[in-house]
Specification:
Elements (H helix, E strand, L loop, with lengths): L3 E10 L2 E11 L4 E5 L6 H9 L5 E9 L2 E2 L5 H7 L1 E4 L6 E5 H11 L6 H14 L10 E2 L5 H15 L3 E5 L7 H14 L6 E5 L3 H4 L6 E6 L2 E6 L1 H10 L2 H10 L1
Parallel strand pairs: 3-10, 3-11, 6-9, 9-10
Antiparallel strand pairs: 1-2, 1-4, 4-5, 7-8, 11-12
Length: 250
Protein backbone atom coordinates (compact mmCIF):
# COMPACT_ATOMS: atom_id res chain seq x y z
CA UNK A 1 0.00 0.00 0.00
CA UNK A 2 1.18 3.52 -0.79
CA UNK A 3 1.87 5.83 2.13
CA UNK A 4 0.46 8.83 0.26
CA UNK A 5 -1.56 8.76 -2.94
CA UNK A 6 -2.72 12.02 -4.52
CA UNK A 7 -4.87 11.80 -7.62
CA UNK A 8 -6.03 14.68 -9.87
CA UNK A 9 -5.99 17.20 -7.03
CA UNK A 10 -7.55 20.60 -7.73
CA UNK A 11 -7.36 23.29 -5.05
CA UNK A 12 -8.58 26.88 -4.95
CA UNK A 13 -7.79 29.79 -2.64
CA UNK A 14 -10.30 32.65 -2.50
CA UNK A 15 -11.75 31.54 -5.82
CA UNK A 16 -8.39 31.22 -7.62
CA UNK A 17 -7.33 27.74 -8.69
CA UNK A 18 -3.77 26.94 -7.58
CA UNK A 19 -3.47 23.17 -7.97
CA UNK A 20 -4.80 21.99 -11.31
CA UNK A 21 -4.77 18.22 -11.40
CA UNK A 22 -1.72 17.30 -9.33
CA UNK A 23 -0.93 13.60 -9.03
CA UNK A 24 1.78 12.12 -6.79
CA UNK A 25 2.47 8.82 -5.01
CA UNK A 26 4.87 8.33 -2.09
CA UNK A 27 5.63 4.81 -0.90
CA UNK A 28 6.94 3.85 2.55
CA UNK A 29 10.68 4.43 2.81
CA UNK A 30 10.82 7.01 0.02
CA UNK A 31 12.05 10.62 -0.09
CA UNK A 32 10.47 12.78 -2.80
CA UNK A 33 11.85 16.21 -3.68
CA UNK A 34 9.40 18.78 -5.05
CA UNK A 35 10.90 21.64 -7.02
CA UNK A 36 9.45 24.34 -9.22
CA UNK A 37 9.18 28.09 -9.85
CA UNK A 38 7.74 30.42 -7.22
CA UNK A 39 3.96 30.29 -7.23
CA UNK A 40 3.78 26.85 -8.82
CA UNK A 41 1.80 25.31 -5.94
CA UNK A 42 4.44 23.54 -3.83
CA UNK A 43 3.59 25.14 -0.48
CA UNK A 44 -0.11 25.03 -1.32
CA UNK A 45 0.18 21.25 -1.61
CA UNK A 46 1.82 21.01 1.82
CA UNK A 47 -0.90 23.12 3.47
CA UNK A 48 -3.67 21.14 1.76
CA UNK A 49 -2.20 17.83 2.94
CA UNK A 50 -2.07 19.17 6.50
CA UNK A 51 -5.66 20.44 6.30
CA UNK A 52 -5.35 24.24 6.29
CA UNK A 53 -8.94 25.57 6.12
CA UNK A 54 -8.00 28.39 3.73
CA UNK A 55 -7.51 25.92 0.88
CA UNK A 56 -10.58 24.42 -0.81
CA UNK A 57 -10.29 21.07 -2.57
CA UNK A 58 -12.63 21.15 -5.57
CA UNK A 59 -11.66 17.84 -7.17
CA UNK A 60 -9.46 14.81 -6.61
CA UNK A 61 -8.49 12.46 -3.79
CA UNK A 62 -5.80 12.27 -1.11
CA UNK A 63 -5.28 8.86 0.48
CA UNK A 64 -2.97 8.41 3.46
CA UNK A 65 -2.32 4.73 4.15
CA UNK A 66 -5.41 4.02 2.07
CA UNK A 67 -7.66 6.40 4.03
CA UNK A 68 -9.25 9.49 2.50
CA UNK A 69 -8.06 12.27 4.83
CA UNK A 70 -9.59 15.30 3.11
CA UNK A 71 -12.49 15.45 5.56
CA UNK A 72 -10.21 15.19 8.60
CA UNK A 73 -9.20 18.19 10.71
CA UNK A 74 -5.49 19.07 10.98
CA UNK A 75 -5.14 17.57 14.48
CA UNK A 76 -6.75 14.33 13.28
CA UNK A 77 -4.29 14.13 10.40
CA UNK A 78 -1.42 14.78 12.82
CA UNK A 79 -2.60 11.95 15.07
CA UNK A 80 -2.54 9.62 12.07
CA UNK A 81 1.07 10.58 11.41
CA UNK A 82 1.14 13.57 9.05
CA UNK A 83 3.67 16.27 9.99
CA UNK A 84 4.36 19.66 8.44
CA UNK A 85 7.60 21.60 8.95
CA UNK A 86 6.76 25.18 8.04
CA UNK A 87 8.75 27.39 5.72
CA UNK A 88 8.04 30.29 8.10
CA UNK A 89 7.47 28.87 11.60
CA UNK A 90 5.22 31.00 13.80
CA UNK A 91 6.28 32.37 17.19
CA UNK A 92 4.08 31.36 20.13
CA UNK A 93 4.85 33.49 23.15
CA UNK A 94 4.07 31.97 26.54
CA UNK A 95 4.40 28.32 25.47
CA UNK A 96 7.79 26.69 26.02
CA UNK A 97 9.40 24.20 23.66
CA UNK A 98 9.27 21.59 26.45
CA UNK A 99 5.51 22.06 26.88
CA UNK A 100 4.97 21.84 23.13
CA UNK A 101 6.77 18.52 22.87
CA UNK A 102 5.23 16.96 26.00
CA UNK A 103 1.70 17.92 24.97
CA UNK A 104 2.28 16.74 21.40
CA UNK A 105 3.41 13.34 22.66
CA UNK A 106 0.42 13.20 25.00
CA UNK A 107 -1.96 13.97 22.11
CA UNK A 108 -0.39 11.09 20.18
CA UNK A 109 -0.93 8.74 23.13
CA UNK A 110 2.79 8.49 23.80
CA UNK A 111 3.13 10.47 27.02
CA UNK A 112 6.41 9.82 28.85
CA UNK A 113 7.26 10.30 32.50
CA UNK A 114 9.48 13.30 33.22
CA UNK A 115 12.68 11.27 33.54
CA UNK A 116 12.16 9.37 30.28
CA UNK A 117 11.07 12.53 28.46
CA UNK A 118 14.19 14.41 29.53
CA UNK A 119 16.41 11.51 28.49
CA UNK A 120 14.84 11.36 25.02
CA UNK A 121 15.01 15.12 24.54
CA UNK A 122 18.60 15.40 25.77
CA UNK A 123 19.76 12.85 23.20
CA UNK A 124 17.97 14.66 20.37
CA UNK A 125 19.32 18.06 21.46
CA UNK A 126 22.86 16.70 21.32
CA UNK A 127 22.29 15.32 17.83
CA UNK A 128 21.05 18.68 16.60
CA UNK A 129 23.72 20.67 18.47
CA UNK A 130 21.10 22.54 20.53
CA UNK A 131 21.77 23.79 24.06
CA UNK A 132 19.45 22.39 26.76
CA UNK A 133 18.33 25.93 27.67
CA UNK A 134 16.44 25.84 24.37
CA UNK A 135 13.69 23.78 26.03
CA UNK A 136 12.62 26.59 28.38
CA UNK A 137 12.35 29.20 25.63
CA UNK A 138 9.01 30.16 24.10
CA UNK A 139 8.27 28.59 20.71
CA UNK A 140 10.19 30.47 18.00
CA UNK A 141 10.04 33.67 20.10
CA UNK A 142 13.22 35.56 19.23
CA UNK A 143 14.66 32.51 17.46
CA UNK A 144 17.12 32.92 14.62
CA UNK A 145 16.27 31.32 11.29
CA UNK A 146 18.55 28.39 12.05
CA UNK A 147 17.01 27.88 15.50
CA UNK A 148 13.52 27.78 14.03
CA UNK A 149 14.52 25.11 11.54
CA UNK A 150 16.31 23.10 14.22
CA UNK A 151 13.12 23.19 16.30
CA UNK A 152 11.14 21.82 13.35
CA UNK A 153 13.58 18.92 13.02
CA UNK A 154 13.61 18.41 16.81
CA UNK A 155 9.83 17.94 16.67
CA UNK A 156 10.22 15.57 13.72
CA UNK A 157 12.85 13.53 15.59
CA UNK A 158 10.80 13.16 18.77
CA UNK A 159 7.28 12.77 17.33
CA UNK A 160 8.39 10.36 14.56
CA UNK A 161 5.44 10.86 12.20
CA UNK A 162 4.79 8.51 9.30
CA UNK A 163 4.83 11.28 6.66
CA UNK A 164 7.01 14.39 6.91
CA UNK A 165 6.13 17.37 4.72
CA UNK A 166 9.18 19.64 4.80
CA UNK A 167 8.50 23.04 3.26
CA UNK A 168 11.85 24.66 2.43
CA UNK A 169 13.44 23.49 5.67
CA UNK A 170 16.80 24.43 4.14
CA UNK A 171 15.95 28.11 3.54
CA UNK A 172 17.99 30.66 5.45
CA UNK A 173 20.51 28.15 6.80
CA UNK A 174 24.28 28.53 6.66
CA UNK A 175 26.25 25.47 5.59
CA UNK A 176 26.91 24.19 9.13
CA UNK A 177 23.25 24.52 10.15
CA UNK A 178 22.19 22.90 6.87
CA UNK A 179 24.39 19.87 7.55
CA UNK A 180 23.03 19.52 11.09
CA UNK A 181 19.41 19.80 9.97
CA UNK A 182 19.99 17.38 7.08
CA UNK A 183 21.58 14.85 9.43
CA UNK A 184 18.51 15.08 11.66
CA UNK A 185 16.21 14.46 8.71
CA UNK A 186 18.32 11.53 7.55
CA UNK A 187 18.15 9.98 11.02
CA UNK A 188 14.37 10.32 10.91
CA UNK A 189 14.22 8.50 7.55
CA UNK A 190 15.84 5.47 9.19
CA UNK A 191 12.55 4.82 11.01
CA UNK A 192 10.78 1.94 9.21
CA UNK A 193 8.01 2.78 6.77
CA UNK A 194 8.21 6.58 6.90
CA UNK A 195 8.09 8.90 3.90
CA UNK A 196 9.30 12.42 3.16
CA UNK A 197 8.06 15.11 0.79
CA UNK A 198 10.84 17.71 0.66
CA UNK A 199 10.03 21.04 -0.94
CA UNK A 200 13.11 22.97 -1.98
CA UNK A 201 14.54 25.37 -4.54
CA UNK A 202 18.16 24.32 -4.29
CA UNK A 203 20.41 21.36 -4.97
CA UNK A 204 22.54 21.98 -1.89
CA UNK A 205 20.15 20.29 0.56
CA UNK A 206 19.79 17.36 -1.83
CA UNK A 207 23.55 16.84 -1.63
CA UNK A 208 22.90 15.75 1.97
CA UNK A 209 19.39 14.26 1.69
CA UNK A 210 19.27 11.94 -1.32
CA UNK A 211 15.80 11.74 -2.88
CA UNK A 212 14.39 8.62 -4.48
CA UNK A 213 12.49 10.80 -6.95
CA UNK A 214 12.48 14.43 -8.06
CA UNK A 215 9.35 16.17 -9.33
CA UNK A 216 9.01 19.53 -11.03
CA UNK A 217 5.75 21.35 -10.35
CA UNK A 218 4.54 24.10 -12.66
CA UNK A 219 1.16 25.82 -12.77
CA UNK A 220 -0.33 23.51 -10.19
CA UNK A 221 0.64 20.10 -11.50
CA UNK A 222 3.62 17.75 -11.72
CA UNK A 223 5.07 18.27 -15.18
CA UNK A 224 8.14 16.06 -14.91
CA UNK A 225 9.42 13.31 -12.60
CA UNK A 226 12.80 11.64 -12.58
CA UNK A 227 16.06 11.30 -10.71
CA UNK A 228 19.31 13.13 -10.03
CA UNK A 229 19.70 14.08 -13.70
CA UNK A 230 16.83 16.54 -13.28
CA UNK A 231 18.61 18.31 -10.42
CA UNK A 232 21.84 18.61 -12.39
CA UNK A 233 20.00 20.13 -15.34
CA UNK A 234 18.13 22.54 -13.07
CA UNK A 235 21.38 23.80 -11.55
CA UNK A 236 22.79 24.38 -15.02
CA UNK A 237 19.82 25.70 -17.00
CA UNK A 238 17.02 26.58 -14.55
CA UNK A 239 13.36 25.68 -15.05
CA UNK A 240 12.71 27.28 -18.43
CA UNK A 241 14.07 24.44 -20.65
CA UNK A 242 11.97 21.86 -18.77
CA UNK A 243 8.82 23.91 -19.10
CA UNK A 244 9.42 24.53 -22.79
CA UNK A 245 9.89 20.78 -23.35
CA UNK A 246 6.59 20.12 -21.60
CA UNK A 247 4.80 22.70 -23.71
CA UNK A 248 6.22 21.15 -26.88
CA UNK A 249 5.01 17.69 -25.87
CA UNK A 250 1.58 19.03 -24.91
Amino acid sequence: MSLLEIRDLHVSVEGKEILKGLTLTVNPGEIHALMGPNGSGKSTLAFVLMGHPKYKVTQGTVLFEGEDILALKPNERAKRGVFLAFQYPTAVSGVSVANLLRNALKALGREEDIKSFRKIVKAKLMELKIDESFMSRYINDGFSGGEKKRLEVLQLSILKPKLALLDETDSGLDIDALKTVAEGINRYTQNPGVGVVLITHYQRVLNFIKPHAVHIISEGRVVLSGGWDIIERLEKDGYEPFLKEKEAVS
